[in-house]
Amino acid sequence: MKHRIKILTALMGFFCVLTLSMTVDAKSTVTPEPAIYAKSAIAVDADSGQILYQKNANQPRAIASISKLMTVYIVHQQIKANKLAWDDKVKISSELAKLSTASGLTNVPLTAGKAYSVRQLINATLVESANAAALALGQKVAGTATKFAALMNKTARKIGISDGHFYNASGLTNKLTGKLALPHVSANAENRLSAKDVALLAQKLLQKFPKVTNITKQTTSTFYGTTMTGHNQLIDDHNLGQGVRVDGLKTGTSDKAGACFVGSATTNGKHRIITVVLGARNKSASDPARFIQTAKLMKWVYATHQPIKLAAGATIAGVGKAKIPDGKQTTILPVTKTTHWVWADKGTSAKQISGQYVNQPAKLTSPTKKGTEVGHARLSIDGKRLQYIGHSAGKLVMVTNQSVKKANFFVRLWRAILRLF
User: Fold this and answer.
1) Among 24, 201, 298, 410, which lies 20 to 30 A Cα-Cα from 288?
2) Cα 366 from chain centroid (whole Å)
3) pTM for this one?
4) Mean pLDDT of 154-181
């Protein structure tokens, strides 16, 4: 009997050690963040703005032709406001025509005195990264290059970009815009944004004008008989993960900026992410470094993370009850107003997600209707707060999950008396 007990004890000890070993091994196999060889980089959820990866993401840098995303965003705004139409014609000046054939610049040829549609100039701006086409759109919207630069900076502030600066619609250095250069501005002045602000700009563009990907996913197009070839080498790349497809957004290259790329990808048509790589290697026009780094980042996000759904009407652990002093019930547990997706390491459960009020909610008054806003909560996973781009991002609106009637006079009087003691 004693011999059997010794064997049983030994087996139990063995399995305890084995379990501990497996737990340690499981923790040690968590995929570390990828080494992204670029000056700055970031990956975010396109819908919520949740940051999934970042490297020097707050440092403003030259962004070259990525600037064209702001030009395209403003043009879309003008069309939505009925101040511009897709079929409106843009007449080309001699300065723009000369710039459109300048050596070393990406362009489609434009003819002085000829008019081109806004739609075709947008296509040329996004597919071919045509500099003169972008500048022509800026002039059409604002009248002059100076006024459009001011509009770009004003728009940037409105969408929450607090740092960086725009000098022109194309992203060229001031001197390379020729006679369209801004006066009293350094010849080498170049549009600058941080990786985080580039991601914010891309997010706003995709959220408000999602059909833009119908243009940015094109590998080739035509411009009045001229064949245009897109620069995005990740379009139709099937090596990024099962179901992962890239449909945008924009490249940018200059001596100061290096090679840059803003990527947009989905998995099985859902859960879109935005990636930004600024200042990658740029040995030649065909150097694939920015796409290699972007692919590495996209693969890592989709392979190691999972989106967890927090449905509308869900309670969040850690988010305390709201008080209704004069209600039939004096407290109520708030729930989420809308559905929210949270990215977390694979294997994470919804139970590991908790929240905390940004500001303690004010006391509610009754009668209180179902759906009354209680306050805003920030989310954490295992105590680590989630980070987001944008000033108001990451704040979940919490609401009442039921109506609460007002307590009768005698109940309220009795409560008041109790509060005195």
Assistant:
1) 201
2) 39
3) 0.89
4) 95
